[in-house]
Design brief:
- The chain has 279 residues and is of the alpha/beta class.
- The protein has one domain: Alpha-Beta Complex (Lambda Exonuclease, Chain A), CATH 3.90.320.10.
- Helices cover 43% and strands 21% of the residues.
- The chain contains 10 helices and 8 strands.
- The strands form 2 sheets. Strands 1, 4, 5, 6, 7 and 8 form a 6-stranded mixed β-sheet that branches. Strands 2-3 form a two-stranded parallel sheet.
- Helix 2 crosses helix 3, helix 4 runs parallel beside helix 6 and helix 5 packs antiparallel against helix 6.
- The longest helix has 22 residues.
């Protein structure tokens, strides 16, 4: 794919049709019952983890940083970035009419301060290569391997946080994350989101090489001393084949209404805990 094809425009939108995302796939794999409550039965949320408004505020601030840099080749001031984070975080908290849940030792003040420190670290260290697109939506097909031929009626969709290119025109998709700990080599090897993004890149003809697509995680570590860490991962055609196999079988399970409880750590701040365990 050339720059002219991948170029982002205001008119670019994903047309309405059946679709499946990494978030949906991940939710089903973590707990099929949670998937049903969220995507099938539209069960009202009982609580909201503070990580959701926090993550949205961080992403909005970073999005503004990249858009300003792309449009004007100018680095926005750290004060403006912090102001954006605080405004979005406050708005998201204020408009929430259900209980906000926190982890032990957390409160709104400490979370807000943590976000400000992470924004400062990001501003001081983030230096992307050529920015091709910011918040770029993708929609690609996946083959139907169960029914033997053709494509699935459901498209794989999502949004890339950032698309960069180097001096030789090689593309990389960048995903911003916040985390309480460093990523292990095992996680990077098997992380499903990287595989989904790599597959989408390959389908869009944005492969880094013939057999590999590059994804980079920009991770803001929520440790005692905040850090900004970058992880580079690649996926192969075999990884893509395994993803297609997984998507086909998860969609088949959803079609057959296979929704069971997967109890464990994921129950801790689940938004549907009461509804799940009372049924």
């Amino acid at each position: 794919m050339t720059l002219s094809v991948v170029k982002q425009t205001k008119e670019r939108k994903i047309e309405p049709h059946l679709h499946f995302s990494y978030s949906q796939l991940s939710t089903y794999l973590i707990c099929p019952m949670k998937y049903a409550h969220q995507y099938v039965w539209a069960t009202p949320w009982e609580t909201k983890p503070v990580a959701l408004p926090f993550g949205k505020a961080i992403h909005k601030a970073v999005e503004m940083f990249y858009k300003k840099l792309k449009a004007e080749e100018e680095i926005i001031s750290v004060d403006e970035l912090i102001a954006t984070f605080e405004a979005v975080f406050t708005t998201e908290i204020d408009k929430t009419d259900i209980e906000i849940t926190f982890k032990n030792g957390e409160d709104l003040k400490s979370i807000r301060q943590q976000g400000i420190e992470l924004i400062k670290i990001f501003h001081s260290q983030a230096r992307p290569q050529k920015i091709v697109a910011v918040e770029f939506p993708f929609s690609v097909k996946a083959p139907d391997i169960i029914n033997g031929g053709g494509d699935l009626p459901v498209r794989l969709e999502g949004v890339f946080d950032l698309v960069e290119s180097d001096s030789e025109g090689n593309y990389a998709v960048v995903e911003l994350k916040t985390s309480g700990q460093r990523f292990s080599s095992l996680r990077l090897e098997h992380d499903l989101q990287a595989t989904v993004y790599s597959y989408a890149m390959a389908k869009m003809k944005v492969a880094t090489s013939e057999n590999s697509c590059l994804v980079r995680y920009d991770v803001l570590l929520k440790t005692k001393k905040p850090e900004f860490v970058q992880y580079f991962v690649s996926r192969t055609e075999l990884d893509h084949q395994r993803l297609v196999h997984l998507i086909n079988h998860v969609l088949k399970a959803i079609e057959n209404r296979i929704f069971y409880r997967q109890t464990g750590w994921q129950c801790g701040d689940c938004q549907f805990k009461k509804a799940c365990f009372s049924s």
